[in-house]
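ARCHIVE CARD
Drawer: 12
Card no.: 0347
Subject: one protein chain, sequence and derived structure
Cross-reference: see card 0346
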Amino acid sequence: MFIAPYNKNEDIEEIRDFVQKNGFGILINKTNERFHGTHIPLMLETNAEGNDILHGHIAKANPQWKNFQTDDEILVIFNGPHAYVSSSWYNHENVPTWNYIAVHVYGSIKIIEGEELMNSLRKMTDKYEKGSDNPVSVDKLSEKTMRQVRGVVGFEIKVTEMQATYKLSQNRNEEDYHQVVEKLDASKDASAMAVAEEMRKLR
């Protein structure tokens, strides 16, 4: 993706943390001469060889998996908070814009089955059930319920590149920057307030 130099984030630990906290991504590849995208939760981990790995699963009824061949490049997009920025907030005339955080992850994909798939399902369930009053565990689900696993295709993506843009008014002067933060906070919109918080971390 295009990233202006002042919006580029190359702090790999910060990017990893972002992906782990914003794990609902868009999986994109080309299937039957068309680009397909599926909105799914994914988990980022580091394998025994020290490689960053994304893993997840999609429905077997989804044709996107039929082109999951080892070493095929795939793109996953992760979005963070975003908000409209009015140019009326600046101390000079300018155009409106949008502030946001986004990460693009490229990698090679392969299908996983058997115990690898079960481990993936187990880890993902444990991650998102952590805050539940009565956490569900894959290991405690009945055999009848677990038959539904037959209807999914698990996969693993070996990450080859991460691109991160943190478009947070870095090119604005101090007065305009802090005015944008104040206006976003005052909106009471959860996403806008999250952008304001990210901006505060920068300055």
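Annotation on reverse: The chain has one domain: 5-82+98-169. The chain has five helices and seven strands.
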